[in-house]
Amino acid sequence: MMNLKGQVAVVTGGGRGMGKAAALRLAEDGAALVVIDVNGENARLVAEEIVKRGGEAIGLQVDVSNSDEVKKAFAKIDDRFGGRIDILVNAAGIQRVAGILEETEEVWDKLMAVNTKGTFLCCQEACKRMIPRRYGRIINFGSSAGLTGVVFMLSYSASKFGVIGFTQALALEVGKYGITVNAVCPGAVDTEMWRDTREGFAERTGVSAEDQLKQTAESIPLGRVGQVDDIAKVIRFLVSDDASYVTAQAISVCGGIHPH
User: 174 CB contacts (<8 Å, ≥6 apart)?
Assistant: First the structure.
């Protein structure tokens, strides 16, 4: 077990899926957790689960695309942990399956706001706390769709390409302060959001969600779709001292289906 005792980790999108897995893994390693999610009940339940396991955690309901809500959330973190933030994991994100003729400006703006702007807002607040202490570990969620465009995922792919570019630029700026910034780029991972995405593809391709799952697993060199803990383990490495010389990277965690 890695020792993160005394460190404070903030995980956005921590109420379910890969964000939840990351929060639980970091708490298991001793970090105090701030679980942020647009669904306040989910955030609270994950925080309660961490506390029941003997850890320290609080859950906050926050829309990461809203700068006022983000600022207020980080002020609450200051009150609880004295302005200390060691780790930020930006896992909050949404998807949309749509072709060019059905995509709407409203949906495009929403994905950009949550996936890309939300990452920026939370990084900005975290860096305000990390730079004076000259230490920090930031992990942003990119995607395989942010490394290679995916059909019918126009706004999602664009938003994740943006996250990866932002990650690289931020890493170059804050490296001198002892802060590393990397992106984890999941491929097909068995989450509720990915299951919803498969239903959207089924409507457009005529291939059922079940058949898509089978075809995807067969196309992955390692022979299976990913699980949330596959991503959490990579995050665990990136926040560790073993990754102290790793920054500005977009790390694909996809079972080999998207070589880079």
Answer: 127, 130, 131, 136, 181
